[in-house]
Amino acid sequence: MLQTAPAAVDPSAFVAYVATYYDLMWVLDDAQQRLLLRLTPSDFGGDRALWGIVLAQTYAWRGDTARMRAFADTARIGFARHVERSPTEATERINLALALAYLGRYVEAKREGERAVALRSIASDADFGPYFQHQLVRIYILANEPEKALDRLEPLLEMPYYLSREWLKIDPTFDPLRSNPRFQRLVGR
User: Fold this and answer.
1) What end-to-end distance do the CA atoms of the chain give, in Å?
2) What is the pLDDT of residues 101-156, one digit of tens each?
3) CA 160, CA 76: separation in Å to the nearest integer?
C-alpha cells in the first residue's frame, strides 16, 4: 500500500509523514528510505531536531552508525533547546531522551524519558500517555535493559493503544527482545 500512494501525494511529504508518525520508517521500502534520507529540515517544518531524530532512526535501521550518531546529535541539540524553552512539554523531552539513547548516553536518556512519562502519564492522559510509555520502552531497548523495557511494555498491551501482540511480532524495534523468554510469552510464541 505504501508503494502505491496516489500520484497527487508529494513523495517527500509522504515519507516524512510516515517516518515521523509512529516511527514507521521501517515499513518504507529502500527507495522511499533513500528519499527520506535526502530530505532537509524544511521538509519537517524547519524543525532540525525532528529532522535529525527521523534521520538518526532511519540510519539506525540501515546499520549506518556514524550517520545515526551525527543526526542523533543534531536532534539532541535541537530538542535540548526545545526543553529549555518548554521544560514541561513531554513530547520534546521524550524526543531528547530518544536522541540521547541513540548517542549511547543511556543514563541521561533514561532520566529524561522517565521525566517525560511523569509529565504525561497514562493515568493523567489516557490518549497520549501510552505513547510516552512506548518511547520509554524503546529507550530501555536501546540501553540494553530488556527487563525494564518489558516492565513498561506489558501494560501497554492491556490498554487501548495501537501496539498489539501481532505488531510486536513484525516491528524491528523489538528485535533485541525476540530471544527473551518473557517477550516470547508476551507475543504468544
Assistant:
1) 28
2) 999 999 999 999 999 999 998 888 888 999 999 999 999 999 999 999 999 999 99
3) 30
